[in-house]
Amino acid sequence: MISFETLKQNYETVRNKVRDAAIRSGRTPEEVLLLPVTKTQSVEVLQMAYDLGMRHAGENRVQEILAKKDQLPSDLDFQLIGHLQKNKVRQIIGHVSLIHSVDSVELAQVIEKEAAKADRIVPILLEINAAEEETKFGISLDEALPVAQQIAQFPHVQIKGLMTVAPFVEDPEDNRKVFRDMHEIFIDIREKRIDNVAMSILSMGMTNDYEVAIEEGANLVRVGTGIFGPRQYNV
Ligand SMILES: *Cc1c(COP(=O)(O)O)cnc(C)c1O
Questions:
Q1: Is a pLDDT exceeding 70 seen at residue 235?
Q2: First and final CA of the chain: distance in angstroms?
Q3: So what's the pLDDT on residue 233?
Q4: What is the mean predicted confidence (pLDDT) over 185-189?
Q5: Ligand 1: distance of its center to the CA of 37 in Å?
Q6: Residue-averaged pLDDT of the chain
Q7: Quick one: CA torsion of 103, 146, 218, 60, rounded to 10 degrees?
Q8: Once rounded to an integer, what is the mean pLDDT over residues 202-226?
């Protein structure tokens, strides 16, 4: 398990890099949210993160969120960043502040149905497969606008922005164009001023490439190993 000291140092290092990249991109540090990705990390590690001041946790599995949430302070904000199966929608509604991974109108429709039943409005991001990788979930860049227009019709689903998982690359510079394309479509959709579509969150950049993502306009970066070290798959 990572030590408190190492976690503290990693967090400070990442926070400083986020701050510097925000300033390089002409923004204030407060305009970029660092979402610590805590998947596979134990409740003890999440509690240490909380004690260091972290108040957000990105997780990719519904069961894991539900299991951890009860054991941690109630003001720790969970966000779902991983693929969401339709049959898990009912369980997760009300337990996360944002679902980053809505990748089809059909999934949004299920969220609409369950959110209406629960009398809630569910904030979501559209997951975009910006590099058109066959192995990844997500809507193509070309379909982002029409899909947003369709989902905008659902009164209990609120589109807050876009998310992408960029390709795995050695050199983060290789993802700069992906991030730039994402930012462009983000601005395009925003300028359409579609009812019920906010386009305020652009979630992109992970441990390997979050600085480049911020330089290209990300305002939410999802950082796991850079803060917590290697994932703990046996937990
Ligand atoms: C695991 C994960 C991350 C964090 O990845 P790191 O490379 O450890 O920073 C970010 N986004 C998503 C969608 C993930 O599944």
A1: no
A2: 11
A3: 79
A4: 98
A5: 6
A6: 97
A7: -10
A8: 98
> How far is residue 3's CA from residue 188's CA, in Å, rounded to a whole number?
44
Residue closest via CA to ligand 1's atom 6 equals 224
Q: How many whole angstroms from 178 Cα to the centroid of ligand 1?
A: 17
User: Does the Cβ of 222 fall within 6 Å of ligand 1?
Assistant: yes
**Position in ligand 1 atom list of the atom nearest CA 100:** 13
The tokens for 225 are 């190993």
Give the tens place of pLDDT for each residue, 145-165: 999 999 999 999 999 999 999
CB neighbours of 142 closer than 8 A, spacing ≥ 6? none
- For the chain, give the percent of residues with pLDDT over 70: 99
Query: In sequence order, what E strands does the chain have?
Result: 33-36, 56-59, 77-80, 98-102, 122-128, 157-164, 197-203, 220-223
Whether 34 is in the pocket of ligand 1, judged by its Cβ within 6 Å, is no
Kind of pairing between the strands at 33-36 and 220-223: parallel
**Alpha carbon of 91 to ligand 1 centroid (Å):** 22
Task: For residues 112 and 213, give the distance between their C-alpha atoms in angstroms, rounded to a whole number.
Answer: 31
List CB contacts of 122: < 8 A, sequence separation 6 or more.
93, 99, 111, 115, 156, 157, 158
pLDDT number for residue 232: 84
CA 123 to centroid of ligand 1, rounded, Å = 20
